[in-house]
Design a protein that fits this description.
By secondary structure, this protein is an alpha+beta fold. It has a single domain, classed as Glutaredoxin (3-Layer(aba) Sandwich). Helix content is 28%, strand content 22%. It has a 7-stranded mixed beta sheet. A two-stranded antiparallel ribbon has the order 4-5. The protein has a two-stranded antiparallel ribbon with strand order 8-9. A hairpin with a 2-residue loop joins strand 8 and strand 9. InterPro entries: AhpC/TSA, Thioredoxin-like_sf, Thioredoxin_domain, Tpx_Peroxidase_subfamily. This is Alkyl hydroperoxide reductase. GO terms for molecular function: peroxidase activity.
Length: 192
């Protein structure tokens, strides 16, 4: 699935976001996750992070997809593994929101080609990657994962490094299990 064809790679986004910016630790564990409003191409709707507050935890997954045919070789296996485990996250009551810098047309092709089950949010300006300080290089944000709990607080953060480009799916599932959705009646039972 990873292509060596560079057609379409050298687009406006590539040149606007060409210079490498390293990921930073500016967003701290326990901080309220920055809100966003991004197009979910898979489900053809606008997604706002605030919608999930008091409802369910969310795993934000920033991935590097350069065009509909060009995937980061470090991110491609990770997006496949997350997609294969999407139902496991769903069973825990955790939504997985994949954020890519592909435009809507490219994102539609990615969804089709990979058989994506999880939502794919289109951020072609790379604005939201910047908002989360994930870093960037060659026109795409660096990979990163954030687990946002029901209160909207970041409880886990994994930022790109060459030693560990993405958090292993097993670790993400274990962390998601800690913050799984609990119904209001279950919360009342715990509180009593």
């Amino acid at each position: 699935m990873i292509s060596t064809n560079i057609d379409g790679l050298f687009n406006e986004r590539f040149f606007q976001n060409f210079l490498p910016i390293p990921a930073s630790n500016e967003i701290k564990i326990g901080a309220i996750a920055p809100d966003f409003l991004i197009t979910d191409v898979k489900n053809q709707r606008q997604v706002r992070l605030l919608e999930y507050r008091d409802k369910q935890p969310v795993l934000l997954y920033f991935t590097r997809i350069f065009t509909e045919h060009q995937y980061c070789p470090l991110c491609y296996p990770h997006i496949i593994a997350l997609n294969e485990n999407y139902e496991e996250f769903q069973k825990l009551g955790v939504e997985v929101l994949t954020i890519a810098s592909t435009d809507i047309k490219q994102s539609q092709r990615v969804i089709e080609d990979l058989g994506l089950k999880m939502p794919l949010l289109s951020d072609p300006s790379c604005f939201y990657g910047g908002l989360y300080h994930v870093g960037q290089a060659l026109g795409a944000p660096l990979p990163a994962q954030f687990l946002v709990d029901r209160e909207g607080k970041i409880q886990y953060r994994h930022l790109f490094s060459f030693l560990s480009p993405n958090a292993p799916v097993e670790i993400l599932l274990n962390i998601a299990a800690r913050y799984k959705s609990i119904s209001k009646s279950e919360l009342q039972l715990i509180a009593n």
